[in-house]
Write a structure and sequence with these properties.
alpha/beta, Rossmann fold, 5-stranded parallel beta sheet, two-stranded antiparallel sheet, about 40% helix, globular, binds thiamine diphosphate
């Protein structure tokens, strides 16, 4: 139960209920990622890459998405560290566990894509690409469609700091700012300080990555992505602008990267600020929660992930014959040498 030792103050603009809801989603997202990491180490899954350390920014983002299918809803062009966005939108943890285990029931990719590469047509979540930065190019397409459709729905695209050196990021800036058809795109860069093992300060001549917006006279902001309230406000402000003005906004969030780049770099815990610990200290300080309540949230999230994992363990891998499903529209062309042919 929440300690009521002090009057519950809004947490930096967040009412107590929202603050506690955000906390439990952050914890759920973290428990899921930590399970995925364990799976990659125990051989129950394969490669791991994901977003522990980005929850303070990604949960507020997921909660503010106008979720649904089609042009009247937001389109999301995400990258492989976006799990907390989807958790906040309501994606069940079992969906990620299935993709991690590559089982046939994986609704994102039928066991063919690697972890944290979802695709959710009913929420306009376009397939995540392992090729970094191409999402900023596909975002232009839905941005154009939404500029023409005249609703308040927007295109949201995110990616990392290192990827901004690539042309797709700059194509998106150019296309989003054409005077003949400005695009309603919220461009997000999550700056976790590294591109795999390359430190960000060794690569960027610009002070902030969000400064790229200055060339276009485009609104922009760099926010502390480890701070829930600051992230909530920055996202709300940026989204309100894009929804109303039908023009782009560049938002940079500085976050931690708590388990390094991926399983390829060991996926061990790194000593960087933990946004959940920081938020919990704030919740306790404000009298919104006590230790027992916080522990209960962790226990419940962990039990949910465990139960889902037990279920997934019983599920089969895809049949070999299913390899050609969904590769070509209408099935495999007859001319394709599937048997006895040489590939
Ligand atoms: C086009 C392309 N080039 C290189 C890679 C290899 N690669 C995978 S992740 C990564 C680093 C990306 O760093 P950043 O953009 O900062 O995102 P982060 O992983 O830190 O979130 C690179 C270079 C790739 N996947 N795609």
């Amino acid at each position: 139960m929440a300690a009521k030792t002090k009057a519950a103050k809004p947490s930096g603009g967040l009412d107590p209920r929202s603050a506690l809801k955000i906390h439990s989603l952050m914890v759920k997202a973290r428990c899921l990622e930590e399970r995925l990491i364990k799976m990659s180490k125990s051989g129950e899954g394969f490669f791991w890459i994901g977003g522990p350390g980005e929850e303070a920014f990604n949960v507020p983002l997921g909660l503010q998405v106008k979720k649904g299918r089609g042009l009247a809803h937001d389109f999301l062009h995400l990258h492989y560290r976006s799990s907390a966005i989807l958790t906040a939108m309501g994606a069940p943890v079992i969906d990620s566990l299935r993709q991690m285990r590559s089982v046939a029931t994986d609704r994102y990719s039928k066991g063919r894509q690697f972890i944290n590469h979802p695709s959710i047509p009913e929420w306009n979540v376009v397939p995540v690409s392992p090729t970094i930065e191409t999402q900023y190019s596909t975002a232009i397409g839905t941005g154009i469609a939404q500029a023409r459709a005249k609703t308040d729905a927007i295109t949201i695209v995110n990616g990392g700091d290192a990827g901004t050196a690539e042309a797709d990021f700059h194509s998106c800036l150019n296309w989003a700012n054409r005077p003949m058809l400005p695009l309603p795109i919220l461009m997000i860069v999550v700056n976790n300080g590294y591109g795999i093992s390359t430190p960000e300060p060794t690569q960027h001549g610009e002070k902030n990555i969000s400064d790229w917006a200055r060339v276009f006279g485009m609104p922009h902001q760099t926010v502390d992505g480890n701070d829930v309230s600051a992230s909530w406000r920055a996202i709300a402000e940026a989204m309100a602008y894009v929804r109303k003005e039908r023009k782009p906004y560049l938002l940079e969030a500085k976050t931690s990267r708590l388990y390094g780049h991926s399983s390829s770099s060991g996926a061990n815990r790194i000593a960087e600020p933990d946004c959940i610990g920081l938020f919990e200290a704030e919740l306790v300080e404000r009298g919104l929660a006590d230790k027992a309540r916080l522990e209960g949230v962790w226990k419940a999230a962990s039990a949910e992930v465990d139960a889902a994992n037990q279920e997934v363990k019983q599920e089969p891998y895809p049949a070999a014959e299913s390899i050609w499903e969904d590769v070509f529209p209408g099935g495999l062309p007859g001319s394709y040498p599937t048997r006895g042919g040489s590939f």
